[in-house]
Queue: 3 jobs
Job 1
Amino acid sequence: MRTLFLGNEALAQGAIDAGLSGVYAYPGTPSTEITEYIQKSKLAKELNIHSIWSVNEKTAMESALGMSYAGKRTLTVMKHVGLNVAADVFMNMSISGVNGGLVVVVADDPSMHSSQNEQDSRFYGKFAMIPILEPSNQQEMYDLTRYAFDLSEELKLPVLLRTVTRLSHSRSFVNSRDRIAQNDLNLPEDASRFALIPSYARGLYQKLLDIQPKIEAIAENSTNNTLTIGKDKSLGIIACGLGYNYLMENFEDDCPYSILKVTQYPLPRKKVKELFKTCDKILVLEEGYPLVEEMIGDYFQEDPKVIGRLTGAVNRTGELNPNIVAKSLGIKENTPKEIPTIVENRPPQLCVGCGHGDVFNALKTLIPEIGDKQVFADIGCYTLGVLPPHNIINTAIDMGASITMAKGAADAGVFPAIAIIGDSTFTHSGMTGLLDAVYEKSPITVIISDNSASAMTGAQDSAALGRLKDICLGIGVEPEHLRVIVPLSKNHDDNVTLLRDEMNYKGVSVIIAQRACVQLPKERKEIIKQLNTLS
Amino acid sequence: MNHKNIKMKTNIIIAGVGGQGILTISTILDMAAFNNNLYIKQSEVHGMSQRGGAVQSHVRISDKEVFSDLIPLGKADMIISVEPMELLRYLPYLKEEGWLITDAEPFVNIPNYPEMEELFNKIKTYPNHIIINATEEAKKIGTSKAANVVMLGAASNLLPIDESGLLKAITDLFNRKGERVVNINIEAFKKGKELASLVIN
């Protein structure tokens, strides 16, 4: 069947058609639509495919491993920085191996369209010594996802599928194939390999090392890695993922150079060697960090046979595009028109009526008392508080870091130290940090700006809904310093007074500023209201 | 202008502000290309910028395989914008003889939005431009929400897909919202086409 799919949707359909039994994920741009597609799929519902959001990427990946342990095919999906959160299980499940096919999908965000860094997940795949697949178009998103499950079961290893923003968020037509049946429940024959006590783990690590030649041979012989010999031997090109598209955009059918299209890792060593032998120079076009270039280039850079991001032939940072690739090939292009100077920046901003804005306004009133460098924030819509007109928050590092950074600063003597965190970010990675603070009675004020959704990624349900107060009390926040306010301009003065009181308290205060995201439909706002009144 | 003059790879940038419905324009083009057995790649912006920031969609329609999801600089046949300042943001993508097509209605959510006269003067320095009061026309038809479809109509004479194909896509897309919405959007499309034909013929 031929269907118009967003890259992420093609991947999701590929997983369903490969006999998927469950997807485990936490929303994060540019990965979110994969899980959402499965959540909305009628077929997935009929097949009883698990697709409810997990609390964070670590719990997601561990649940996926549990489903794989039970013999079923499972997908775990996250953005690149989410893999940092899941890194513990990620690194260890390549030692234990998997049972049912397990595919880790990571969506990287080169150029940082919606992220705090542009880390390249291929390094993680290499680190864990597992196969990596890097599709370059929507059809490959579908086909490679299906292939990834087979490969995972053949090797009994997780497989990393890496996509990037431009592919995840681009549409094209995709041909899908017949669906294969889901696996039956089937516990592993050799279950002990999932118990990584040192005496077992040493042997299993050796096994992972021993299987490397096989993994490499599969990549070497795979049609996913193709070498095309060109007439002009002055240059050979290694084009990974989207790098291939931008290369072909410049040449269409008549590229004079040899091209090695890399879609599957480890690198196909023999093909790379052939390119090396037959071409004077090797240009590496890769989306993200210079992984391939670093592997095959001269460490001393005295023999610049290999050129790419490290040598300056390609921009060191940011995503590739057809023009950057044209430049690296020495293709002369006309100077583009300029953006007229009257065009002003239009940065993203909080929606009209957003409750985060009222929290910022209350804090702003208190700035003369608390200073303008003591507000530690987190990842979500409220991160926009760093920009004008708010200019209220000072930090945004990673999910959950508001509370723990405030605690560390408080330990150093900063008072008051204020943390702002969203409800979903709080349950993702804030709760454990709050326990640290409660344990030590650290003098911090935590504002949970609760809009009852993961708003930035499209207002997905938050696991915190209706549970925030109970969670805080359970962690040990003193009931008299757990306060709930409604961030509305009519409550401004009262909210400022309450915030001031709690900031002056020399222990942990938690203020839940509770008002549903304005983007939510009416029915959901009603449900939220009821749940919040009950709790 | 006859659409046969357009060669078979057409690159279109659609511009606006998050929430203005530019993806609706892209979706109609996608569906029409699908019905005409053409190749398409259409990239769009999700995430942070959707919150009132500048957003764009690259639509590439061709009778051959399309490689890059992004349009190269200087290769866009047209920029369709639902907002005049956003139109100019993507000028570096425009071909020498490319078309600038925009709604005259500004979306002001920043304090330093430029003077309207300056904006229009700048747009008019490019001979191939179409400025239409799409929001106003859409209101007359029934809802300002249809301004995006007025803009698509305005661009339609320059597209590689004929009117019946676009109208079918509009009908298919809005069908689930009922006949009234379908009719409003068909009227919006035709109005845009009519107003643009005064400029480009």
Job 2
Amino acid sequence: MRNLCITAGLLSVFLAFSFARAADADQRSEASARIRVTATVIRPLGLMRISELEGRPDGGQVEDWLLRRPQAGDVSVHVAVDGETRSEFVTDGGFVALRSNDRPTDLFTAVLPAHRLFADLPARADSCVITVIYVGD
Amino acid sequence: MRFRPGLVVAALAILLMGASETRGQNITVTNDLVFGEVFPGIPKTITRKTAGSAAEFHVSGTPGAEISIDFTLPTYMNRSGYNMQMVFTDADCAVDSSASPDQSNPGADELDPWHTITYRLGSSGLTIWLGGMVIPKLIQTSGDYTGTIVLTVAYTGN
């Protein structure tokens, strides 16, 4: 009887270590997941520059674009100077003031009876990208 | 009653088995990394703290166990032959193991997703956020672009 108990005990120890090793192996196991990254590139409306660069007293530049719009409607205007969003440099034909220093990263939304956009660039700007999209009619 | 050493050993063995019980780990994707609409030539950043747009994962497993977190990050998004550059900085990841994870004020912030991150699971697991930046070219073909991020977690045994 004593031998039987010892045998049972040793067997239990063996089983315990086996379970422990299995559990340890489970702890080292990996889990992985895949997620999607999505983005939609917007096609801008056409813009045509209608004037060459003009000098400003402070050394900046004024550019003038004609917005080619086939129909009336609200548009959003987005301006990036040297890759940085700069909404404060745009005015809309002198009718609707699009200057908005307090919202430098927002899109503009404006009805444009006048189709000319003026970008008033800083003196040392290397590039200016103006993007216009319809937001509704 | 006779002393039976075998029974004592067996009892210890059963206790040892109970002490070594662990839970498997699991990852749940709560949110994809969504940049939404982007304009040609204008980089757009989704920070790790942008709720609803930043990538969000939840890892469950053994509370208190340390895990390693590894990302496989894309450098481009694709659209039928066209691509668009992506950038992940060394501070685009954040994690929180508290019972109420706070994306705006996470437990560990500005972590580097390019290198292995180690962190301990909390009682409710671990929430991971990841942001990034997309850089469309000046003449970027319009349309929907997609990419894939792979997240792998593993127990470190610590």
Job 3
Amino acid sequence: MAREDDLKLVQGVGITKTFGGVQALSDVDFEVEKGTIVGLIGPNGAGKTTLFNIVAGAIAPSSGVVRFQGEDITGWSAYKVCRRGIARTFQVTRPFGEMTCLENVAVGVVNRQPGCRRSQWTVLAAECLEAVGLKDLAATEARHLNVVQKKKLEIARALATRPELLMLDEVLGGLNSQEIQEAVAFIQGLRDQRRLTILWIEHVMGAIMQATEKVIVLDQGKILTTGTPTEVVNDPRVIHAYLGD
Amino acid sequence: MFAIASMNGIVIGVIYALSALGVSLVVGIMNVVNFAHGEFYILAGYFSYLFATALGMNLVAAMTLAVAIVFVFGLLVEYTLIRPTYGDDLYSLILTFILSIVLQNAYLLIFGPYPNKPPGWVRGATDVFGLFMYGNQRLAALVAGTCVIVFVFAMIKLTWFGRIIRATSQDRGMAELNGVNTTRLNMLSFGLGCALAAAAGVILAPVFPVTPTAGVPVALTAFVVVVLGGMGSLRGCIVGGLALGLVENLGAAYLSTGYKHVFGFIILILVLAIRPSGLFGHKEA
Amino acid sequence: MSQGASILKSNRKNFLYGAGLAAFAVLPWTLGAYNQHVLIVCLFYTMMAASWNLIAGYTGQISFGHAAFAGIGAYVSGILAVKAGLNPWVGVAAGTVAAAFFGLLVGLLCLRMGGIYLSLTTLGFSEILHIIINNEYEITRGTMGLQVPGLTTSYSKISYFYIFLVGAVITLTIVYKLVHSNVGLNFRAVQNDERAASALGVDVVRTRLLAFTVSSALAGMAGALFGHYMMLITPHIPSLDQQFLVLSMTVIGGLGSFVGPVIGAFCLEILSEYIRAWGEYHVLVFGLVALVVARFAPKGLVGIYKAWRGKKRPETA
């Protein structure tokens, strides 16, 4: 029993969220096993980003429990959750526009290692930028970046916090097919080389099919089904949810 | 003493509420706090004094014209100063704060430091409930203030314009998608906010002296009422305004006159410490 | 540029700064008493503007209570000196600590909500302090002003100049170190996008609280020093007019830049001495200039200069 629980890096039980009169999430149970890439899909408005926000501490659930490595982190503030080992990207990127790319990433570094000196974080931040291919833009202010570069910066920043769980929110939007392939390979690399666990909201189904080991499907705030990519894609309920009547 | 203090509290409370409505509307729709709110209030007072006394206009005409002019001035300010800052709350804060000081000094220069008082509408006093005599002008102010508030609520609840206002302050993006011209709406709301300040100004001008800096405590109180009632809540303004008026006047009567305005601040502290979203405000989602 | 060239350039920059500072340090010997006074006031406003810039320019919180904290520093120091016979130097330290303490309290109260709430709370705090000072006449002597001893045994403008010079250097050094430290990264991150900052592990409230407390302490120090210099502490120090001047200086000089507040303080103070000849117009003139600058050149004089340089040499953008 204990071993089984060890494998669950993050787990949500009975997560419910109501905004005013709107029920964004109802009784959502999910788990993500350590060292896997798990996809989170569902039609628009299904509550995917809301779930991310709850796990990441940006908002608190109306009820339910979030556990990370067995520890109850429900309702923790975002910065505490990050320091505990969960990093996330935003669907619409949020770079620190007036800071350079290096400084953007450095924010992640110094909050992971508070006593860090400038000489150290410069190096560490540069490494993260290099990993995503933004090394040459280190001294450029983030507001001058294009959309794809901003997405890469977002990931580099998240990586700088040395997370155990990386939550990606629609990072492939706006990429061409070659870029998508590179991104998928990169994300798989994160799992294989860096031993990251990844929870990934995505609309690009090809990538989900290719990279994930398990897919969770949300529809109108409820879990529709969970399974392997093949199972999920062939599930008539999932098809129905996306296409409607 | 309790009766008179309460009466004062209610009268001033209604005016606080009216003034706070202007702030709340603008905050709800544009997320902008107009620091020069008090200066618009006083400007209307000055205009009504000018028109009624210097030009000898009919009182009602003078007041209406004063409010109208301040409304237009508000539109102008929105267009030149606020609009370019939309999205950045900080800059509108800085700009309206500077505007407030500029206006105060401009008034000092133009109108001089001595208090001006437009003529009262009514004279004498009335016996209230057989308990005490109360100045008719203040009673008139109470009635006028209440009428304007009722008018505003009616407009918000019943008219098409009011519906747009409610929709936009709830969800700006949605409103835009539905075809609301939010830029024009901003301008009109800001003007309306200033007009409400102006209305409060002309109503109270015969009661309290109009001086260049008399707008500052007015703005401050409006802000406290808005925080107390809840940002963006119009009902909150009414309850908050009356509550503040009563607390201030009862406090001044029973505790200390010198610290009258401190009560408002104490309320502000308590609200921020215990329930920052105010009485009727929405908690951050 | 190459390693060697950039070290040379930075050495040359440091040398220029050092020489400039040295030249400035001997300036008062060449001036008459009135101009010495103007320099001292410039240094006072430099301290105030630089510390206000720390929260407003670097963390994006517009506080209207800055002058109030200066007032706390001044009154605490002055009252202790007069009522308890405390040495004014110790008084200045006490005033700084008191300002820091109140800064912490006010910060704790309103920094969770931030933004508009902070501005309103600090505004209210400032007004309240004003009322208390006027009401507690017995202790503060209200508008008559509290007479306090000076910092030096024999009054000499030159010695006060050096005291304020040291004070300004301390203030600027603290601001500089803070902004260029890891904490400074957090400041700017929070200012740019606080949601993203918290997702990266930045404790937004604590970051702002730190900036706010340090900034209030520095204002308190400046106020205490000023009170003992003028040897008279009046409610004018913690007034909204003063707050307005500090804000204008920072905005016109360049909000969010390091030298902006210094430039703004010196320019505006010297300018106001000349305009003073015209009478009461000078606040209005400042206000209009500040309004125009804030509206059309939000980054102030420093911003204008940088934009001009950027146009001249596009490759160093």
